[in-house]
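Exercise 7 asks you to align residues with tokens for two separate proteins.
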Amino acid sequence: MKAQALYTDLAIYYDFIYHFKNYQKEAAEVARLIAENKNSQGSELLDVGCGTGKHLEFLQDRFRCTGVDFNPGILALAKQKLPNVRFAQADMSNMNLGRQFDVIVCLFSAIGYVKTYRRLRDTINGFVNHLAPGGVVIIEPWLTKDTYRVGTPHLAIYDGKDIKITRVNVSQARGDVSILDFHFTVAEKDKPVRYFRDKHELGMFDHQRILAMMKKSGLEGRFEPSGFMKDRGIFIATKPL
């Protein structure tokens, strides 16, 4: 996977850009889902696609946490923020951490970055290999072809005292892949305005095909349409004891 500007040049602004997300509330909901579905006895949690560690910030007191991300720049920020959490750089489609976890979470639609069904299959199989018997996997998917609206303009704004950020794009697609061609402007006190163009491509995966992959890999999965963000829902899957 190619490292986008959002995870490199713009990494220090990432939490400003997504200031609207209530990570504490989402982490509490994740903890509830874990309590209701996990049958293993341990408390080891792996956050795949952890970003700057915002979910881990609110999970680290409940679980022994490890974070994985593909992008070293954003991973460095997570390490600075959460010195008591273990981190590793890895591609979720072929990671090999050499150990198992009681919980694996993949949130904020990070799973979409695997882009193809082949890499999605490899990712799910990797999750199974890293999951302890009785453990639970929680995946927040990206939009599907039915819920993604091609041609829709989008605007996000961060209006801080000394930092102003805008992000605009018009939704595009190519087959099963959504294309987010972001245009960022960053205005910071006593600095010239900077502009970044940053293209992201995320796979739009059919929910039934995801569930079929989970079943084939040995997981018992289900999809709940009520998730953290509009039209995304949540997958919950367990590994038999």
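Second protein for Exercise 7:
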Amino acid sequence: MIVTYDTTRVVSKLANLCQAWHKAFVPKTKVDTLKAKIGRPRSEKSQGAILDAVDALLKEKGGAGLSIEAIASRAKVGKKTIYRWWPSIADIVLEAGLRRAAKSIPVPAEKSFEETFRIFLSRSMLSIADGGDVYLRYLMAYAQQDELFRARFREQFVEKRRAVLSSILLQATESGQIKFKHETGLLVDIVFGAMWYRLLVGHSPLDEAFADELTAVVMGYCEEK
């Protein structure tokens, strides 16, 4: 009896077995790992549309109006695109908030420390009053529910804002304008603590008068040289 073989099928099976063995036993290279992490690159147009959609929805409906479905519909993108680019809806809000903060709170470059500090406070409060309040309330509320997001929020937003204020204090010290009676980290806590307490509780406004009062408080912790 003569036995015949379908060589095409045999070769195909061998190729599949080799590929499976390679995946199972051959370690991935750094390039393979990097490609797996990166995935498909973001489209700037779609990314901008998604962040714009978050801006609009927060302005119109507040945090309660946010959902992946609502964002996808407003941005005219698929939900899979959003899930692929951000681990949670709060991370989208965080990125939109960072984009907004970069535009609305530039670092002032005035001559005197008091004037520079006063302008920093005024611009920060203006940004909050001009729609930034809904971002911060949403992000801080979500950060209490999710420890991993809280770490990202602290690293990407809170520490950056603290660094800006710390740089203003450090510059004043190095230029010889001011000598602080206390550690500057405490002053940063006092400033943002007062601002965010008013933001969350809402018992008093974040306005120009408060910026003046807070500036006077901080100046009381300083000794002019």
